[in-house]
Structures are given as C-alpha cells and as structure tokens.
Design brief:
single chain; about 70% helix; mainly alpha
C-alpha cells in the first residue's frame, strides 16, 4: 500500500471524514506547540498528505499516530529511529538499568494501570502511542538489566503493557500490530516466571485469530492457555473459562460454550479484585455481559433477557463495554424481528462507538440488518 492509501485507510477505519480529523488534530496541536489552523486549511493539508504530495513533519506524525493508534510503518511514514537507546554507549545503558528498584517497578505498573483506566473510558487509539513509549522504555531497561531477580519484575511490567497494547490494537482493527504485541507479551511472561501472565497473554492472542477468521486455531490457543493457568488464581481461571466459552460460541458449539460459562461462573471467587491481576474485570455484570454476548453469537433468543438492563448497571468507567452491550442487543432484537428495538440500540451503540473509536465494535454493528431491510442498517 502507498502512504496515500495507508493514511486514507486509517481514517476510513475510524469512519471519520476529513473535517472530524481536522478538528481532532487541532485539539492536540497546542500540547505540542503546533499552530491551530482553520478547519478548511487543515482539510487541505490532510488532502495533500493523503494524496502523497507531502509527508507530515515528525511532530504531526506523532499526532496522527496518537489519533489512529498506528505505527509509522502502518501509516506509510519513514522510520524515525524510534528505538531509543540504540547508538548510546553500552556502559551508560547499564548504569541506567542499575537504577531500577521496587519503586521504579511500582511506578511503571501505575503508569500502565493509568492507561488501562483511560482506555476503558475513552477508547484505544490514543492510548497506543503512549503504550509504545512505555514498552520501548521498559524493553531497553530489561535489555540492560543483568540479574534474573531484577529482570523478572521488569518482564512482568512489559507483559502487562504489551497485552494492553495488543488489546488496544485489536480494538482499532490492527491485527498485525496486535499479534506482535501479544507475541512480545508471551516472551516477557516467560522471562517473568509468571504462569498467570503467560496464560492471560496466550488467551488474549487467541482473539486476534478469531478476528482473523481462524476460530479453530483460536480454540487450540484457548485450551493451551487454560492448561498453562491451571494453578493460577481462581479469578484468572474463571476468565480463561469465559474466554474459551466465547471461542466455542463463535464456532457455533452451543454445548461446550454453555459448559465453559457455567464453569467460569462456578470458578469466579466472591472477591473479584486480585492484586496480581489488575487487568481482569469479572465483577458486577461483566461475566453476565460476556455470557450474553455468547448467546447472541449462538442465536439464542434468551440473549435479550440476559442482556436487557445490563448497560444501565455497568460502571460509568466501562464506556466501551456499554457500547458492546448495545451492539449485542441490536443484533439480538434484529434476530427476534423487533425492528424498532434493534434500531434504538444500534443508534445508542453507534453514538458511543463514534466517541471511543472502536473499529472492532463498528464492524460488528455494520453487520446488522434490520428486519424488513435487504441492506445493513
């Protein structure tokens, strides 16, 4: 693909016109000491970028990477040598790495957790650029840390940052980027010595295979993840069972899907917050929402009863999860022949999807056909 088609494809993947992109760029310019241009002028500039007439300058490339959640290569920009630390003296890097202590690890984890909370509220694309910076920094420190006792906690942080980046990339529809992040996460999890982190990264990578249409291999990966995590805390084992349940639902395997979700429900502990698993959310209505999604995939009319009312009970910070419920309800009501209910939920879902920029949810919603229509809604 040319840089022209790559830039246009990234904008189209979000469902944005040039005017919306122009305003998004202008919103970010003051923070980078760049001028705010009239929207018409900015649209002209965007056209020149997308036509391949000019290449944005590095500061503008950073803004576009943040908006789209994509790398320089994915946008057709030249390599800027983003891997920090290359070319610097080895001795200097070793000295810096020796400064890593328990407080540093706690700070890195806090930064990743901050991105995680922002992602739930505001969407994925803008988070990826920030995560890539954190990943590069931690990778560089890990590369120059000598002893295993010091490398293991750094590798744990790298695993968490990489799995979060993988999920963000998956949400914006960048499967190749997601796969790379998850592959790094699994390697880092091995170095960390945590079977729980490895099981989680392995299961999340299976969702990339699902989105790529390879459900059979995804089920194999889910099974491997459950085997890896068989001695993990109950919260993770419950999450792994539910993940496998979704895989079975996507394969149309009704019995195994229901069995897996029943197992997840039985495994879920009363205390659904675990200090070693800050990335897992099965409290409140989350597992019920997940089961409802599986019922929609299976074409079960009971999906409506399972999902109705869950969005109102969702914590306000889980904005994208609410959108997912609306998408599922739109699809479920459409299958039940209720055109108006399907349209209402689709409109609610579309509004939130536009706010958080979830390409993954938008593609699901694009498959909705309202009863009585021959085309998608």
């Amino acid at each position: 693909m040319t840089s022209k088609s790559l830039l246009q494809a990234a904008r189209h993947a979000l469902g944005w016109g040039q005017e919306k992109l122009a305003r998004a760029i202008n919103d970010r310019c003051p923070g980078r000491d760049l001028p705010v241009l009239p929207v018409a002028s900015r649209k002209t500039e965007i056209s020149r970028w997308e036509n391949g007439r000019i290449v944005p300058e590095p500061p503008m490339r950073a803004i576009l990477r943040e908006i789209y959640g994509r790398t320089n290569a994915e946008l057709g920009f030249p390599d800027e040598g983003a891997d920090r630390g290359i070319g610097e003296e080895l001795a200097e890097r070793l000295v810096i790495a020796r400064r890593v202590d328990s407080q540093t690890i706690a700070l890195f984890r806090q930064e990743v957790d901050g991105v995680r909370h922002a992602d739930r509220r505001f969407g994925s694309a803008a988070r990826l650029e920030r995560l890539r910076g954190q990943i590069t920094e931690v990778e560089d420190l890990l590369r120059h840390t000598l002893l295993r006792r010091d490398r293991a906690p750094l590798a744990g942080v790298l695993t968490e940052a990489s799995t979060l980046a993988g999920w963000n990339a998956l949400d914006i529809g960048s499967l190749a980027q997601a796969w790379t992040h998850y592959d790094r996460a699994k390697s880092a999890a091995l170095e960390s010595g945590s079977s729980a982190l490895l099981a989680h990264a392995t299961a999340e990578q299976a969702f990339v295979l699902i989105d790529a249409g390879n459900v059979d291999d995804a089920l194999s990966l889910f099974a491997e993840a459950r085997e890896i995590g068989q001695r993990a805390p109950r919260l993770l084992r419950a999450w792994l069972a539910a993940a496998e349940g979704e895989g079975y639902a996507r394969a149309g395997n009704d019995g195994d899907a229901r069995r897996a979700f029943d197992e997840a429900d039985a495994l879920r502990p009363s205390e659904v917050v675990h200090p070693e698993l800050p990335f897992l959310f099965l409290g409140g209505t989350h597992l019920d929402r997940w089961r409802g999604n599986a019922l929609v995939l299976l074409g079960d009319p009971q999906a409506i009863a399972q999902l109705e009312g869950l969005a109102d009970g969702m914590q306000p910070s889980f904005v994208r999860a609410s959108a997912s419920i609306y998408v599922d309800l739109a699809l479920a009501y459409s299958a039940a022949g209720d055109r108006e209910a399907a349209r209402t939920y689709a409109q609610q879902a579309r509004r939130i999807i536009s706010q958080v920029g979830s390409v993954r949810l938008r593609r699901r919603l694009e498959g909705l056909v309202l009863p009585g229509d021959s085309r998608t809604a």
